[in-house]
Protein: CCA tRNA nucleotidyltransferase
Amino acid sequence: MTGLADQAWFRDPALGQVLALLNADGGEGRVVGGAVRNSLMGLPVSDIDIATTLTPEIVMERAAAAGVKAVPTGMQHGTVTLVIDGKPFEVTTLRTDVETDGRRAKVAFSTDWKADAERRDLTINALYADAEGEVMDLVGGLADIETRNIRFIGDPATRIAEDHLRILRFFRFFAYYGSGRPDAEGLKACSAARSKLKALSAERVWSELRKLLSADDPGRALLWMRQVAVLTEILPETERWGIDAIPSLVATEKALGWAPDPLLRLAAIVPPDAARLEALAARLRLSNAEAATLNAWAMAAPVNDEISSAAFERLLYRNGTDGITTRLKLALAVARGKAEGDLSEMARTARLIKLLQLAVNWKKPAFPVNGGDVISAGIASGPRVGELLAALENQWVEENFASDRAALLARLQERVQ
Structure:
């Protein structure tokens, strides 16, 4: 039998205490989902979720009797979070679906482990481990973990009809855990139901897409999403732009030690068109910060990689670093993708790396003169103050910030006489 008893996370006394609390007096609790899946795949385990035959009310009662902190995080869905030694354990009662509409489900509590497993989405997410660490597989998940096959439980169309977000989850889990070609029946069902994604909230769609784009290498998943027209369903902006930049971007990230950045990867597959990106941000309900990042990239001035350092610093001062940094990273990824055997692209890569380092480390100098100085020089409040200040600042920038406050004030006096 497959077991997890030798895993360090499974031997944690806090987890043992939770399982002992749930397994007393005829109850049963088992670790489920990601912790089991990741352990079997040799991947790090973070969150530990537990399924139980006990109702949430009984879980709360047992926790109170044992002096364990219990938070009713989702009682109507059967979920209670137990906290021991500062570690949260999400405990959810076994469930069956009473009614589904593709967006949300009404559930009934159960004591049937097989029914609970069969209502989940993918086989690799429906494995349980008991208090001894023995793994229970009721849907063929162990075989799929061995082959890294991402497969829906039972009929793919039925699973998707229960929750349309499972279309995106299929590709997200393929990006993180899959190998080879995605399951053919799953692909077919995702393609057939892709129009149903419009019925989901924008927040759920973007949350899932952001997770997918955060995978170490989302390239193959994006390729298959494009193949079955799921990508253009949620990102029509990619239809004429494509995803060809992703492989070289991922390779550049790994070579230069960049952390996976979902917004940078999104920028790589959509056009730098401010109006279209504004519409995209509104449609997917991106946060203000996310929308601003994309807008800064779209509005950033193009960078000639042969620009001098002095001219580049002036560009950074006038345009900010965020959008230009994104442009440089994407240009660098393209150049590195072409560089092998191409001396001109190799030289361009070196220049882009230098500019990127300048941008990342650049600190915007503070203009040492303000409007109060202009007024003190004898100019009455009004538009003339701003005009003089702007002219003075522009000259200071063109001289690459060389003049100090005293020199600028002297120059101001010359302008107002």
In short: Residues 371-416 form one domain. The first strand starts at residue 29 and ends at 32.
